[in-house]
Structure formats: C-alpha cells, structure tokens
C-alpha cells in the first residue's frame, strides 16, 4: 500500500507530518457510487478533512468525480426488513431536507446550471463542516481508470495540507473556516430554524409519514383473507381488540404465567408430622451454620481488605 | 459460598449448638461477634511477653527500698540536693513559699501495688501505646496532721516523687538507662507522676517489646487524714488574698483520690472475677471512647478508669426499679452496649450516681456532692466523687456520643461495627458543624471571671477559663445548638531536669459546635418580658449592649437580641457572630483571636466578587433570595403552559428537573435581563444556563406508533406551545438537535421567563418506552438496532423517569437538611475544579453528598456546608469502592431486605467485572454489559443496581483519581484548620487548585471566548471591564464575536470538549473544569500508544512505527515498499488536528510529555 505524506504548519507545530494510506477500492459488490476501477480507498484522513481538501490533494493525478467519507461503517447486522424500513425513513428525511435546501438555493443560485449547484453544495459543506472520527476513511472516485492508476503509482512525498502562522495564505485560512467557534455558532443557529420553516418541515414529514402508514396498512389488509394457491387462508390478528381478520373466531394464546397459576395448589399441614418438626429443626441448624460460615468468610475478606486495627 | 453440604448436615455437638445460639442471643449477629473477636485481638496485650516488664518492676522496688531514708529537711535543702541530682521538684502551682515551716522527708515505700488496667487485664492498646500503673505507698510517718491543708500534701508528694526519680537516674541504680519524665495524673497539675520509658538496651529489664511505659504514682493510705476533713464542702486552701473560705471540692477530691487506688482496684477485680466478659467489655468501651477523643489527658474529661468503674457499678445497680442494669452472664458486647445505653439515658444531674451506701445527711450526703460538683459519680466508699474533675460539657459530649452509638447499635438494617469501633472520629472539622479556635487572652489571670475565690480551687487560670467557656456559650446559644464541646492540648510530659510547665500564652482552646439546623439561623433571641426585672437583668448581663427592649407584633414587650444577616448562607453564620460577641463581652477575647471555621468555603460557590462587577452578577442579591427566584419563575411558566388554550392535548404535569430545582446547582441561578442587549455583557459572562423542565400531556391514542414520527409530533407541539405562550410574555425558541443516530430527545423548547431564566422544556410520552422495549425484546431485531434503541431508552429513562424521581427525593432531603444544598454545591465545585466534571454526573455527586447526611455514622448528620463538605471528602478519601456499595437511603425507609438485595446486586456486578476483565484481552473493545460498570456503586431506594447515574462512568481510574485528590484536599483542610494561624478563606484556595503536571498535554483556551469564564475561581478582572474607561457608564462592550443575540446554553469550551471526546474519545481522555475553566487536560490512552499491526479500522490518526521525524524511513536495508506493518499514533499530527478543530478558541497547546518518546 503506497502512502502519502502531507505537511502542515501551525504556530505550535511546524512541519507536522500526516500520513495518508490509499489503495484501489475492491469490493465483491458493485456499487454505482464507488465504481470498481475508478475508486481509490483513502485511509487515515485527518479529522477535519473536507471534500475540497482531498480534491486538491489528488488534482495532480486527474479529475476527481466525487469524494465519499465513511464516518461509520454501515451496519451489516441489520436484517433486510429493518434496513428497508430505515432507508425509507431516511429517504423521507432527505426529501424534507431537500425542500429546505431548494428553498435556500432558490434564492442564492437562481437558474444557473448544474455545475453551480454542485459548487453550492460544496459551499454548504464548508458551512456545516463535519468532523470525522480520527483516522477515518474515504473513497475518492476518479473520472477515468488511468487517473486512478496514476494516483496509485504516486511517489511517497510530502505535500502541503495547510500552512498557518506567518506562512498562511488566504487559501489556508479558508480551510480553517467552519472549524472551531464558527462551527459551533453555526450549529447553534442551525438547530434553531425559523418557526415557520420548521412547521413546514414537520407538516411535510407527517403528511408523508401518514401516507406511508396508510399504504402499509392497505397492503397488509390486502394480504388478509386471501386464499393462497394451496387453498389456505391465513388468518391473523388485526387491531388491538383481539378480533381476527375474518371477524369470526377469537383465539388468544395463554401466557406461561397464567398457565402456572391455573394449577391447583396442594395444601399441606405444616408442623404436623414428627418428621416435619425434625426437618424444620435440622434446617434451622443448617441455616445457622451456613450463615456462620458465610460470616466467617466475610470476616476473612474484611481481614484481607482492612485490618481490625482501630488506631 | 464454598461450604460443603455434607458438613452442614452432620450432627451438631453440644458446644457447637451453644456457640451458634450464643452469637444470636448474646451478640447482635454472628458477624458482629466475629468482628469483636478480631478487634479484641488487636488491642489486647500479650501477657506472655511481660517477663522483662516484671523484672523491671521488681528492680524498681529494689531501688526504692535501697534508697536511704531521711527526715525533716527544709525546702531550701531539698531543692539544693535535688538540683545536684539534676532533678527539679515538680511542685504544683502555687509553688511553696520559701518561708514555710514544715519539712520534707523520704523513707522507703510502705507498699507497692500494680493498679489500673494492667493487673485487671483490661488494657486496650492506644495510639501512643499503653501504660502500667505502679502505685507507690508513701509511709504514713512522712505526713503530719495538718498536711491536707494548703497543698502541703501535694508538695510532699512532689518531693517524694523527685526522690524516686533521682533514685532511678542514679548511675548505680541499674536502671539509669531508662528515660524518665514527669507528667500529670489525668491532667491534674496538682498530681505529678513519673513516667518510665523502656531503655531499649536489651537488658533483662528492657520492656521495649511490650510497647508500654511505666507510670509511678505515689499515694497514701486512707488512714492518714480523717475522711471528714476532705468532704466536698470543706475548705482546705487558704489565701492571704481573701478572707473567704469557700469549699474547695476540686482540691479535696484530688487528695481523696490519692488514697483509694487499692480499694478501687479491689472493687473492679471483684466484678471481673464474677463476670467473665467484664474485661472484654471494658476494652470495647474504652476503644469506643478513645476513638471519639472522650478519653483524654486533660483534667476536665473522662478517663478509662472512670468508665470501668461505671460498668462495674452497673453490674450491681443502675437498672430500672433499683435492679441491676447489667448481669454477670452478659457478653462483652452486651456489657459495652448496656453501659453506653446507661450513659445515653441517665440523667446525671437529677440522679447522681452513688455506688455504695450513702449518707442521708451530713458532709457526704448526696446534696453535699451535688452542690459542689458538676458531675457526681461517688465511689463505693460513699466519700469520693470519682468524677469530681469532670466538667458538665465533657459529660454532655459523652452523652451525645453515647446516644449516637445507641442509634448505631439498634439500627438493624446495617452493620455499624466499623463506625462504632474502628473509625477514628475525633477530628473536630469532621465531627462538628462549626469549629472555633480561641487564642487565650494574654491576661487570662486578670479576667473578671477568675476571682480570688475561684483561684483557690483552680490554681491554673487557663484551666478555669477553658472550663467556663462552654457554660457561657450554652447559656447564650440556647436551642440553636445541640452541643458545645471544648478541648485543649494537655500539658504533656516534661523532663525531670526542667521545671514544671504551665499553659502558656500560645495555648489554644478548640470549641466544637453541633448546630440545631432548625433554629441556628434565627435572627432574634427573645428574652424575658420587661416587667420581670430579675430575669431581665440576667438577660442584660448576658448580652450587654446587644440586649434591647422590643415590641413585637403580638403586642408583647420583650428583652431581645437581634442579629443582622441576609440570606441562608449568612444566616447560618449568626452563631459565629454570637460566639464572637459573647467571648468579647465576657472574657475580653479580641475578635482577631477567635478563629471561626464555618463560612470560609462560601466564596467558592459564588461569583468572584473581586473580579466581576456587581452589575453583571450580584452575589448579595442571589444569596438573599436563594433559589426562590428561579422556583417562582418556574411556577409562572407552569401556570402559563397549563392554561394555554387551543392545545390539542392539555398539559397535566410540569416537572422542574434541573439541579436548581433540588437546590443543588453550584451557582444560585441568577436572572439575566433579556431586555438588555447581549453587547452589554462581556463575552466572558455571556453564558445563560438552560434549566430542564418536563411537560406531560394527558394520555391520548392519537400519537403515532413510530419513534421518529413521535419526535416530529413533539416538535409540532413545541411549535404550538411557543405560539400559545407568546402572548403571556414568554418568548420561546424551538430547537431541533441534529444528531443523526438519536431516536429520542431530538428537540426541545427553550422558554424565556421573567425575570430572566430560560427553561428547556421537553415533552414526555410514556409510550416511547414500550416502543423501544418491544424492539429490544424482539428476537428478530438485529443487534445494532437493539443497541440503538437501548440507547434511546436509556436517554428517555434518564430524562423522563430518573431525573424527576431523583429531583423529588433530593428536594425533600434538601429541605430536611438545610445545609445539604451547600454541601452539594461545594462538592460539585470541587470535583469540577479538579477537571473531573466530564466523568461524574451531577446526580452522582448529589448522592455522594446526600450519603453523608442519610448515613452520617460515625457522626451525627452535619448541619453546616463546611462540615458536610469535609465529610464528603472524608467519605471519598476512605471509601473502598471495589468492595463496598454505597447505599443512600434517600427517604429513610429502606429495609434490611433491600440492603441485602443491594449487597447482592453489588456482588454480582463485581463478579462480572472480574470475569470480564480476565476474559477479554486488552485489545478488544468491551461493549458487553458486564464490563467495568458502576465502578462507583451508588444504590438508592429506587435504583438498587446503581444503574442510574454511575453505570457507565466514572471508570475505576477516575474513581482512584478522585480518591487521591480527596485525600490531599482533606489533609490540607485539616492542616489549615488545625494550624489556627489564620481563618482567611484564601488558606483554603488550594483545595480548588488542581495539579496539572500529570497531564500529557494541556490545552489553553482563550478566556475571552469562554462564555462561562465569569464562573472561574479566579477570573481576570480585565475580561469584565468595558473597553475604554471613558464610557464606563455606558457599559457597552465591543461587539461580541458571538453576534448580538443572547445565546442560550452556548459554551464554546463545552462544545470543544464534546467534539474532542467524540473524535478522539478512544485514544485520549479529556479533563476540564466546566465552571469557567480555561484549560483542557489531555491524557493519551497508554494502551493505544504501543506500536501495533496496521489495519483498516484502527480508530486513530497513525503513522508507520519506523519513520523518523522528517518522514524518512528508518534505515532498514532494501525494504522500501510498505516497510513494516506496525503503526503508532501520530501524536504530533493529532495535536495539530486538535488545534485546528478548536480554531478560534484554542490559544496555545503545551505538551508536558511526549508519550511516544517513552516507547
């Protein structure tokens, strides 16, 4: 795996070396977002890396189409249904967010071409800058395969990431915007949108949510009481009142605890037979002994932990 | 546990049955019995090793017998002859005048007896070893008939003692290598004794191994003086200064007691013969008393002998209806407990103790004793008051401790053995609510109260002064206090060649006060009505100028004393004012020699008034109003929300769950006037704390069944609510958190309520619990989904279930114990000041503070923040978290069963912890539930698993650090308060200054950017002045970098800290003082620092292990591609990342240590 070094100068730390590792992305699954032969897998990126950082870094090798950060590994443990459900909800959220963004972009970018929109997206990214867990990974997708290959044969070499202090250029300073205090301020204000905006968002979400709920309900209903090819009809419970989907018979499964309580209790005389008395006596003694032994152990433990010296 | 069944079921022997039975009948419990046995082993002495001691005693007798007798030497002669032997005769003061006519002599002792605890086998080894008492009988012929008068007996006794001392020191004696010292018997300066330390020369008389000293006590047979002459009412000291001849009971008793050593020994011996457990009982009793400082070597208090006599007496009387209190068949535990019970209950004033037959009238009648002594415990002869020297204050203290002890004995729910016997509890700062140290007035002998008459019975003006403080304070403070205890350092031993010491001008008297929390803050003391002239006069003499006539609302005109104080904190210091006044008024003690420890810590929980102008934060107003202002504001909000119209659902409950609601926020919340623009505040004081509130709606079926949709629904409610209360003068903002993976608590409503508080309202909806639980318990859900929902559930429970319950219980407790609030606030401040706030929940610290109130053993619950805080430190510095759960019984209703359950839960947690520690290799991240959870196990009535507040954090490492810090802090506190050099609170500053050297990196933040900087312990005033002095009145600051809006709860330092923890939490720990701290400490995780194999998801910024600083590969022949696959964290790159992330806030980064360098 080739590695790449970048330097960075700050007031306290001059000429700090940061190591990036990268390799060709390989995956058994084909994902359109990370096409097999054009994707570079970059590791150990700095926590404050942005798309433009990486674009600039790989510019000498060729044209970078997209950069995707892997903040956290996508859960492979989710069951299929769950994932679908989650994706559906995320889609709803994204749409809600998009409405918002369009509202914002509409005023800013006007009717200019698609390229500008991408630029606007970058600007937004800078404003809402995210941090990645330290030592995260990213995919860098190139336009063509050669460009990827060119990147792969890059020499190990120092490249500048950011300068600061006296050497800082306006471009370097720009890399710091959206970090620190300004980032937190920004987040503070983002969390407090205009009431009307928020209302719109909530209403939209609820509309969509209700629609999808309704659809799901309809779909479930449609599955009920339909004879399958073998001639069976699946009868399930619907609603909370214990009514079945065909409205005829009501069946409830008894719970384990209920069954246990149904059993008749055997009544037995206590302290009646001589053997009972004997046993009770013996048990009492055993109990005493056991407690005594336990206490002795406890004292032993106490003796080990702290001694009984009062002074 | 590991007990084999077979052994449990085998047939019992008689002995065994008896043994098992015994422990439940005679002792509190098995465990108590076993603990007592262990304790006795520790304090008893080994009589088998006593041979050298016995040899030494024989040798002594030989020396004394050998010493030549001489008669009738004058004072001048004996002084000279002793001087030759370099012994100064330890004459008590007043020294004999040179013109005395009587003479001194010596002849060999007529008898020598071992007395005291050694022959009785009731020795309890103390902190400073123990002693063997040898009573040496002075022959009768040395004394004349009138020798009981005017110290003549005591002078002769002193001479006799110095002859003995000289004899031992004589080179030819054979014991001259033993070190000899003079001391006093029970602190009575009239009665010097001789102390022999072991020689250590390994001769046959060297008793060093016994770790004891020999005390030589001269005495006379009781036949020397007729008993009548020493009756309590007699006068035996005459003075040229006064013609009066008042009784001299102290003097008389001191002499009487010198005649009774053997008879008392016989009395005790009889009882120890009849009662098998008597000896052990005595030892227990003495250990208990010693731990409490009740046995001391000053003349006013109790001693071990007196307690033994008391126990012996109870074996023959003292019970109900004239019966016996104790029986001979009792166990040691029952004997000690019975005696303590008697002390606790008995009214010593109404029923003075007469051990033997008593004269119904005459000079030895009960009345004669009562009228001459504070405390009366008359020995079996009916003539000697054993407690003649004991002051009433000492008895009060003993009785207070006894009552406490009885509470611990009878509390069945918990085993208090340690509190009763093992813990040393005599440190005044921990034991008392307020501690006063008085430097003795210079002219103590010239005090009005030290009259010539008093001087006859109290030759030392200091002792007399010390004795008269407590009665005065008790009279003045009435029901404001439960107890006044005084004590002073005893004289100690002195070399035989130096003259008798006395209490000097540097003597210090320590007064400990236990406050009555309900009354101590009272502003007015009411006296008698004006027309009761006699009583009014008494009141006026007590209070001097402070007494004034006042007409009260009910029309009565009363004498009264009024005190000025505003606010709870100040009112709790009234007692201090009163003591200062009383001491000045009656004893002319100047204010500056009264060191009063009580309010010194208050400044640490206020804004620093020196640096911060009142315009910004006014401590006085805050202190005067306390938490009431914020509670009122909440009530207003609650009313507005509940009466909001047109809400789809009506609000049923509002809960105020912020620490301020339970009087537990470090700072009393101060309103911020929202009409004043933000620019009028410096950025360093911009912080506005949001206060948590929960809104509960009536139940409804209309909520969606999906967690995310519920959150949106809540947002809709917030929006509606904001709209509705807008017209009630409450502006509010709906906030939506953007955290991606949180399922709950996405939003809240910040409401601004007059006079300037912000309430952060969240809607509680119970169904969320069920929804989460359904998914968690569903077998089909994936692990990650379960975890996600578990997290959501935890968050929900914390905010909506645990917080309100905790607030409810703590609020009740804070009202029960008024000083709890201060204790909590100090504790929080202290923990944060040591940068540990990120690891300890507010609630956990509150419970820790509550613990010293709910379970104050071995003391009583504190009644001042000063004592409360000291106790928290003491708890933290001694608690063994690994082996003991801390049980906090918040409402006092916990049963023994619940305690057992908690103990059980605790054992399980610890077992799992050990199991998981050994099972997992250090490299794997432990996410399983059983890994080191609840390393600080704090269980309450509602939370028997310690799951609420200390389950995840702190880690064992943090607990250990807290413990170490608590120990240093407490030591410092004890040192400063014991030194009595100053009472300035700055002496305690060090408690709140944390050492920073052990952090790998310390990040310095720009104070101008820290919005909470005003809360800093020592802020720089520069940050709070308006720019340019000319416009001071305008009070406008330069435009804030944060814009001109007031930002709620915005604290860049906290944001930064959170960001650091999110980003680097796996490889470093971050420490910060949340109350305006301007530094962040970083510790690298040592585990992450070692080189390891490279892999994709390592989780930290790394670099190849084999590169040099400039990036070149370390010389390794021929291997260039890839190098080795080992990597280490790239610390420098990490640091520069950290600096970039804190852009604008970070001022500088100082590296204390380069961790990679050590590898």
Automatic annotation (TrEMBL), chain A:
This protein's record includes keyword Coiled coil: yes
Keywords (A to Z) from UniProt: Coiled coil
Rrp7 RRM-like N-terminal domain ranges (all copies): 8-98
UniProt GO molecular function: nucleic acid binding
InterPro entries listed in its UniProt record: Nucleotide-bd_a/b_plait_sf, RBD_domain_sf, RRM_Rrp7, RRP7, RRP7_C
Coiled coil: 75-102
GO cellular component, as recorded: CURI complex; UTP-C complex
GO aspect biological process, one term: rRNA processing
The Ribosomal RNA-processing protein 7 C-terminal domain, residue ranges: 190-311
Family from the record: Belongs to the RRP7 family.
Name the record gives this protein: RRM domain-containing protein
Organism per entry: Linnemannia elongata AG-77
Automatic annotation (TrEMBL), chain B:
Nrap protein domain residues: 132-273, 277-423, 429-587, 622-815, 817-980, 997-1149
Protein name: U3 small nucleolar RNA-associated protein 22
Gene3D superfamilies hit by this protein: 1.10.1410.10, 3.30.70.3030
PANTHER family in alphabetical order: NUCLEOLAR PROTEIN 6, NUCLEOLAR RNA-ASSOCIATED PROTEIN
SUPFAM superfamilies linked to this entry: PAP/OAS1 substrate-binding domain (SSF81631)
Family statement: Belongs to the NRAP family.
Key word RNA-binding present: yes
